[in-house]
């Protein structure tokens, strides 16, 4: 089975790709439009430079060769959501080609190309016989990323997309919700011929649409039938794909070079652009640079880049073990509560300072960190954590074998956590119970040796 994806990302520019219409959510249909994005006679497109910058950033993220010069083409087809009957896109010499992207599993997915183009408008069915059309989206810039058919299962395609989207969001500062969307065309072949499922949105739907296609194509092949090359769409409610049309070939679109735009020499621009380290690259760098578990590095980065910053600060100032103990422990446990309270982790390094210089004890340090991050008073934390520590200690006194089991397999701690969560009736957060249980078991282990 071979799966390849074409991923369309709406780029976060303030104005559209070839005119000054805003790209933000419009108050009503057909209000963010002008003669250029409607393709009226006499209007001329003017390229928004930001679009090329974002295209180059993504090309670099995906390890593509960035072109020296790039230009645009007109793709001709009629569809009511495109009043010009041509879409300005890139055909020859896209922004980037020939890249590769490494998944957390280690598998490398080859990237065929990345180009930039304009989004068409949107149609909305009204009853059986008519549709309404809204051109607000028409002319919003898109990057299209095309992969080679290197993905082997629907689940792997989902995993790839999840990781790639997280990296894209970080590198081009794409808002995590609302106005910008990511859509996917999924190409899949079980036998020789492939089918394309157009415009699937959402990770879960990509996996569902592909899973359905695997079953459908397998059934046809088993009964001696032939898969036809075609374009299909995914019905989210029914969970099935439906044939839309026979797949056309690129040559059918009669591409011509766009005469209203020039050739862009992007060498200098590309050389001036440095991209941010992607979350995926950062997690693997942190794991190898500080010698920590890849799983932990991934957790730090996916919780927040700020948390990863703090880890690197503490590991640099003291050593990785200190950073694992405090940033990986109580600071991670309180991170969400800190964000919800609108606080910052500013004070924690000072608290760790006082611990390493022997001014405060292990448990005082834990409590002070929590107080600084959540705003709770030391008194209430002392009462609560005293209660929690007592519960855990009582359990460990009764079941001393758990400490030895933990030495062999750290999953042994789940017994402590499960029992305490149950007996405390939800009084403590799971993060808090996990962190305290680990701390107490580990301190018992240390006193044994
Ligand atoms: Zn416009």
Radius of gyration over all CA atoms, rounded: 27 Å
Q: How many separate structural domains?
A: 2
End-to-end distance, in Å?
Answer: 54 Å
- Provide the structure class: alpha+beta
- Which consecutive residue ranges, at least 5 long each, have pLDDT under 50? none
Main beta sheet, described? 9 strands, mixed
Number of helices: 15
Q: What's the overall average pLDDT, rounded?
A: 91
What bound compounds does this protein have?
zinc ion
Taken as a percent bin, the fraction of beta residues is 15-25%
Q: What oligomerization state is this entry in?
A: single chain
How do the strands of the widest beta sheet line up side by side? 2-6-7-10-1-11-12-13-14
What's the count of strands? 16
What's the shape? Answer: elongated
Q: Helicity range of the residues? A: 40-55%
